[in-house]
Design goal:
This protein has 144 residues and is α/β, with parallel strands linked by helices. The chain is built from six helices and five strands, in the order βαβαβαβαβαα. Strands 2-1-3-5-4 form a five-stranded parallel beta sheet, sandwiched between helices. The chain is globular. It starts with a strand and ends with a helix. 46% of the residues are buried. It binds D-ribose (RB5). The site of D-ribose has 8 residues, from helix 3. The site of D-ribose (RB5) has 8 residues, from helix 3.
Length: 144
């Protein structure tokens, strides 16, 4: 991946895990574009899902990572932005297939559903796995 910027954001429920994933991105050789939240104060997850989606759709980042309590609400928000395919993932198989088959460009994680080790593994797999194209290209095109 030539653009190694990864946009990342969370709501308050995802903030501690997001902080861990920002560090993990650095360890993996990526530049984290941290779009908040900046603490445990209660915020609204749609604002943060949209911020990451806008960064990816606008080319400021190659991929995105979003975290809320479940990974669901923030993924719904991100998926309202054209060109975004945000995939809630709960294990490395989901993360791998989201890239290989769906060309997902945003990884959504639920801090109340997955532990930090699983989340870090999902992140690494998501970043290192390429889209397979082929028959999946036609299907992904229909999502547009
Ligand atoms: C916040 O309490 C919680 O609703 C949010 O983090 C997320 O789980 C929503 O989908």
């Amino acid at each position: 991946m030539s653009n190694t910027s990864v946009a990342i954001a969370s709501d308050h429920a995802g903030y501690p895990l997001k902080a861990e994933l920002v560090a993990a991105l650095g360890e993996l050789g990526y530049t984290a574009l941290d779009l908040g939240a900046d603490g445990a104060e209660s915020v609204d997850y749609p604002d943060y899902g949209q911020a990451v989606a806008d960064a990816v759709a606008g080319g400021r980042a190659a991929l995105g990572v979003i975290v809320c309590g479940t990974g669901l609400g923030i993924a719904m928000a991100a998926n309202r932005v054209a060109g975004i395919r945000a995939a809630p993932c709960w294990n490395t198989t989901a993360a791998r297939l989201a890239r290989q088959h769906n060309d997902a460009n945003v990884l959504a994680l639920g801090a109340r559903l997955v532990g930090s080790e699983v989340a870090r593994d999902c992140l690494a797999v998501f970043l290192e796995t390429a889209f397979e194209g082929g028959r999946h290209q036609r299907r992904v095109a229909k999502l547009g």
